[in-house]
Design goal:
single chain; Rossmann fold; UDP-galactose 4-epimerase, domain 1; seven-stranded parallel sheet; four-stranded mixed sheet; about 20% strand
Length: about 300
């Protein structure tokens, strides 16, 4: 029996991973800090604080999972880039991996970030793009990867590290780009934007979850990007949303300056994900936006 422990299971990506794990025969155990568990009778839930080493170790010793999908981190919107909590999560996460291995764990997949890369390069490749994080968030994620990579070699732990790019979809934080534009337009509010020329790699959350599942199931070890492999200008994303909602009149481009030190291009090289792991996106920008807009219509109760 494959038994997986999922942290961050009620988060944006985590809750989309659970159905895939259940469908494919995993016994799923999930940790949640808040009492906001996804209602699913096929998941064993544990209400615990991962910052407590004892609480997480007690769960692992009881469950003895074969697989670990670690998605939890400090993610307070806008604050996480420079938050000192990032340092704490390096130690917390490493202790979790140690306890997992010491209790018979075989395969660990940990969430990383595109913020580990040097963004001056634009196209981010696992094998050739330098790792030069510009934020404490990216620095701490990379520090954790290095520690686990060394530990995995010493302990024969099968370990993969997934660098996430730009995710969107139902249930995303309302202040993020896609969700804030959709919600504002559905409520008839004007939106002041920059010129929107910067290009980013956007991927629908269900595809991100499917990528995590594919990596977990594989024998791949090391770092791998999770992205679409396609660069889309932010203005094109906004225009796609406004056309679908029919409120182009509410978009005001070039009203705001581009954020300072904003890279012109940021895109994932996805050849490892597609060729070595065999994952392929199910959604394009149009179909992903359709599902996201529909979710927001229901959430906001607008026609």
């Amino acid at each position: 029996m494959k038994k997986v422990l999922v942290t961050g299971a009620t988060g944006f990506i985590g809750r989309n991973c659970l159905p895939l794990l259940i469908k494919n025969g995993y016994e799923v155990h999930a940790i949640s800090f808040r009492n906001d568990q996804v209602q699913n009778k096929n998941v064993f839930w544990y209400n615990a604080d991962l910052l407590s080493k004892k609480e997480s170790e007690d769960i692992i010793s009881r469950v003895r999972p074969t697989h670990l999908l670690h998605l939890a981190w400090y993610t307070e919107h806008k604050k996480y880039w420079a938050a000192l909590e990032n340092n704490i999560w390096v130690d917390v996460s490493f202790s979790l991996v140690e306890a997992f291995r010491e209790n018979g764990g075989k395969r660990a997949l940990i969430a990383g970030t595109c913020a580990e890369y040097d963004w001056n390069y634009g196209v981010c490749s696992e094998d050739s793009t330098p790792l030069a994080p510009a934020s404490l968030y990216g620095t701490c994620r990379d520090k954790l990867r290095q520690k686990i990579e060394k530990y995995s070699k010493e302990s024969s732990l099968s370990f993969a590290w997934a660098r996430i790019f730009f995710v969107y979809g139902p249930g995303e934080h309302p202040s993020r780009l896609v969700s804030s534009v959709i919600a504002s337009l559905l409520q008839g509010k004007k939106i002041a934007c920059s010129e929107g020329s910067q290009k980013r790699d956007f991927l629908f959350v269900e595809d991100v979850a499917a990528a995590f599942f594919s990596i977990l199931e594989s024998n791949f070890c090391g770092a791998v990007n999770i992205g679409s492999g396609a660069a889309v200008a932010v203005k094109d994303v906004i225009n796609t949303i406004s056309r679908k909602i029919g409120r182009d009149d509410l978009i005001e481009f070039s009203k705001l300056p581009l954020p300072q030190n904003e890279p012109a291009l940021l895109i994932a090289d996805t050849r490892k994900l597609e060729e070595e792991i065999g994952w392929h996106a199910k959604y394009d920008l149009n179909s992903g936006m359709d599902k996201t807009i529909e979710w927001w219509r229901e959430h906001l109760k607008v026609a």
